[in-house]
Design goal:
about 170 residues, alpha+beta, 5-stranded antiparallel beta sheet
Amino acid sequence: MKKVILILTLALIAGISGFVLSNVNAITEPIIKAADEAKEESMFKNLFPELETYEKALNEDEDSMVKYSVKVLNKDKKVIGNIYNANGTNGYGSITALIGIDSKGKITGIEYPVFKQTPEFGDKVKKEGYLNQYKEMDSKDVNPDAASGATYSSNLVKSLVEAMAEFHNKK
C-alpha cells in the first residue's frame, strides 16, 4: 500500500510540475520571441540605418547556407538593399551571420545573431577592424584578410559571406 501511495504522490507532483511548466512556457514564449525579433530588427538597422520596413523570405534550398533573405525598404518603399542570414559550423562551434548588400552590390556590414566560437581566438572576427574590411566590398569579389589567430573563424565567416554574396548575385 505504501508503494501505491508513493507512486500516486510522485505522479501528482509530476503532473502539477508539468502543468506549471507548460503555463510558464506559454507566458514567456511570446515575450522571448518579441525580444528576439527586436534584437534582429536592431541588427537590420545597423546594416541599413535608413531601413523603414522589410520583407522576409525563407530560402527553400535546404543545402544552402543561406536560410533567409530580407528585402530592405526605405520610407519611400524603395528597395535599398538586401540582408541575408546564413549559418555554418566548424570544429570550434557555430556562427550565424547577417550580411547587408546594398542595391549597388556593395556589402554594408556583418552582424552576428549567434556566435559560438572559441573565446579569445574566435572573437577576433567580431572586432571592428576585421568587420570593416568587408564594408563597401563588392559582393562579386569577396576577398578579406584572415584575422590573426582566428583562422578557422575567419574562414567560416568568409565562407558565410561568400555564400550570401553568391546567393545575392544569382538574383
